[in-house]
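User: Is it possible to get a 3D structure for a protein together with its bound compound? The compound here is zinc ion. I've pasted both below.
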Amino acid sequence: MSIFNAPYFQDEAAAYAKLESIIWPHGPVCPHCGAMEKMSRLKGKATRPGLYKCYACRKQSRVTVGTVFESSHIKLHIWLQAVFLMCSSKKGISSNQLSRVLGVTVKTGWFMSQRIREAMRTGAFAPMGGPGAIVEVDETFIGKKLGAEVKSGFGHKNAVLTLVERGKGSRSFHVDGTSSADIMPILKANIAAETVIMTDEARQYNRVYQHFAAHGFTRHSAGEYVRGKTHTNTVEGFYSVFKRGMRGVYQHCSEKHLHRYVAEFDFRYNQRARLGFDDNARTDSALIGIVGKRLTYRDSSI
Ligand SMILES: [Zn+2]
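Assistant: Yes, that's possible. Here is the predicted structure of the complex:
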């Protein structure tokens, strides 16, 4: 049986019930005044599904108010299908394909996938690593900077920096460049000082040992990739999925939106099967992320 036979992928009332169970696990909360006890579901044939009235502030609302789904004309059950597709495709799904599968226009598919990426983006973080932990750090280059002249080397490309804690999650950043001045502040802000850091021999990592428990590196230039625990295979594994996704699926990602694509790959890596997430759990996790992230595009038609 297709996963999309589930009622919340087919029916608007079931879709609202599903989303409410995720966003309001302890019962409905008024998005306007925060009252919990006074929310009453509006019923009747003419009432659209999911509508509540708050008897504290007298306002009407639904669970999508204040989320990336707010004021969308797309039916909620279609949104839930889109979120599932993006959460269950290891390398992502292009907005063109999303539009074909869901039966919406290409433009709508693009707006939907941007909003879902925003839901996948996490905000403030506790430091990664800690005593006994190992964080691998590497950078990669994607696409082309706006207006940049294409030359040899990476100067015209967008740089992405990724930190991966072995056995745990990843955190990636769209960075201006890969100098020590670009990278060190990010490492210091995101990784606990007690952590062991692994990198390649690139010059920008020369001073890493001053700020962390230890710094191991391999000499790729000398053909050395692994020396016991000293390697960057984990972050390179992350990049192999990221690059195949970015090249194959998201060829036309602009610089302005790169941070959202990067967040999407981090999101799936951080809720991967090995950490106990199946496609449904990953989808629920993305749905929790829709709250408090209204995204408005001036010419949005969805
Ligand atoms: Zn209220």
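The first helix runs from residue 12 to 23. The mean pLDDT is 91.
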